[in-house]
Write a structure and sequence with these properties.
Chain lengths: 81, 81
Amino acid sequence: MKARVYVSLKSTVLDAQGKTIRSALSGLGYRSVADVRQGKYFEISIEPGVSPEQARREVDTLAQDVLTNPVIETCRVEFDD
Amino acid sequence: MKARVYVSLKSTVLDAQGKTIRSALSGLGYRSVADVRQGKYFEISIEPGVSPEQARREVDTLAQDVLTNPVIETCRVEFDD
């Protein structure tokens, strides 16, 4: 079983890195890009033998408490069975 | 229209950052985590008026040529209509 956690800046927070990428892309001639926001992505493999419920509970908690800074970021968690 | 680009290290490449996160999580008591790999995530908004085909072509190219280092990384692109 695998879990994927996507952490991105809240839409109200300025994403300087995304803005820089956007302007670099525009300088390279990619004209269809209106905006870029960058985030982090974690692929978590679950120990065999752990129940899906236990894994979900643990990954939801660690995504919100450890991988995300709740002041400026939001996270989304997906599970692959 | 939005595109999401996920860039991760190839599975044959050592992910030192992921290993560090895994050992930190294990120290914090998250026992169901077997492995963590970290990647990057880009959310790209497309200019209104650009055709979906043109946008797809451009995002596929920029994901592979600009956002990914093909020697050590792979990328995955998803589109939201």
